[in-house]
Design brief:
It is a single chain. By secondary structure, the chain is an alpha/beta fold. The chain is built from 10 helices and 12 strands. Strands 6-7-8-3-9-10-12-11 form an 8-stranded mixed β-sheet, with helices on both faces. A 4-stranded antiparallel β-sheet has the order 2-1-4-5. A hairpin with a 5-residue loop joins strand 11 and strand 12. Helix 3 (113-123) crosses helix 4 and helix 5 packs parallel to helix 6. It is globular.
Length: 332
């Protein structure tokens, strides 16, 4: 493949616990993202999935530098942007944008839609007043809203319309890459389909690259070219969307896919239901060795001691497992 547009190398983000409650000392930290490496290529959609609390939203914010990484490297277009100052990062902000999960909280309720969409042009000094007004109306049309909506406030729109406004704001400066953090999870099913189709059309029209974060496996399978599966702050498997859904390599991916409700007349592969025992371990004190071993039915002694690296396997897949699954779904 071509050189990656965006690359994360051994990315780590730890959040210090500021309270000594429950017997925790001030030195305790939450291991939100712990050594993640991945690449996003131009024009593709990389899906990121995992349980709530696995670190996928934190990873998305790290990729666009909304969070400062504890360690590791973020490269965009071959340039290291990890430690750039706010002024040095400004040119990259135009090319790296984000769509936030909550369409209610991500828009300023005190500003009209026209002001919200004009802010990127004003902040980056990209256009004069007349040009900005024209571009704002164009953006509204692009996302399927009326230019007459410029004087409305966010509370006057439905949830799906608010998310379209968030998409328009992300598109304002013609970015190369957009990180979409669960952009449809707060919407009704019918509205979800509209927003997903909108994002797909915009990708074709403007040549966009997406990092699509979600917990809905069906949505991720539909929109993604490749999928990265996260568990407790680490990536456990990366692979092409169709291949990963048909033949998972990591036991955690197998368990996630088995949770998708089956439809009686569905021609897709029938899966054995894998019920994970126990709770997700605390990110404050993650298990030694493989993070998934306390809940894995294939775990052996080596899984409790040695953390498996993310290595290449069959079908161009990457998996971090001492006992990856073969084509028949059995551990090796």
């Amino acid at each position: 493949m071509s050189e990656p547009l965006l690359e994360a190398i051994d990315l780590v983000k730890q959040f210090p616990l500021r309270s000594a409650a429950f017997g925790r000392g001030r030195s305790d930290v939450v291991h939100a993202v712990d050594g993640v490496s991945l690449a996003v290529h131009k024009g593709e959609t990389l899906g990121i999935v995992g349980e709530s609390g696995c670190g996928k939203s934190t990873l998305g914010r790290l990729l666009v530098r909304l969070h400062e990484p504890t360690s590791g490297t973020v490269r965009f277009g071959g340039d290291d942007i990890t430690r750039l100052s706010r002024s040095e990062l400004r040119p990259y902000r135009r090319e790296l944008q984000m769509i936030f999960q909550d369409p209610y909280a991500s828009l300023n309720p005190r500003k009209r839609v026209g002001q919200i969409l004009a802010d990127p042009f004003r902040i980056h000094r990209q256009a004069g007043r007349a040009e900005t007004e024209r571009r704002v109306k164009e953006l509204l049309e692009v996302v399927g809203l009326s230019p007459e909506h410029v004087n409305r406030y966010p509370h006057e729109f439905s949830g799906g319309q608010r998310q379209r406004i968030g998409v328009a704001r992300a598109l304002a400066l013609n970015p190369k890459l957009i990180v979409a953090d669960e952009p449809v999870s707060a919407l009704d099913v019918s509205i979800q389909a509209q927003v997903i189709n909108l994002l797909d059309d915009l990708q074709d029209e403007f040549g966009l690259t997406y990092v699509f974060i979600a917990h809905d496996l069906g949505v991720v399978h539909h929109v993604s070219d490749r999928i990265a599966v996260m568990y407790l702050g680490v990536v456990v498997e990366i692979g092409p969307s169709d291949a990963l859904f048909l033949r998972p390599v990591h036991p955690y991916t197998e368990a996630l896919l088995s949770a998708i409700p089956a439809i009686e007349d569905d021609d897709e592969v029938r899966r054995e239901r894998v019920v994970l025992e126990g709770e997700v371990p605390s990110p404050v004190d993650p298990p030694s060795g493989c993070r998934f071993h306390p809940r894995c039915r294939y775990a052996t002694d080596i899984c409790t001691i040695e953390q498996p690296p993310l290595v290449a396997g069959r079908d161009g897949r990457l998996a971090a497992c001492h006992h990856p699954l073969n084509d028949t779904g059995e551990p090796t």
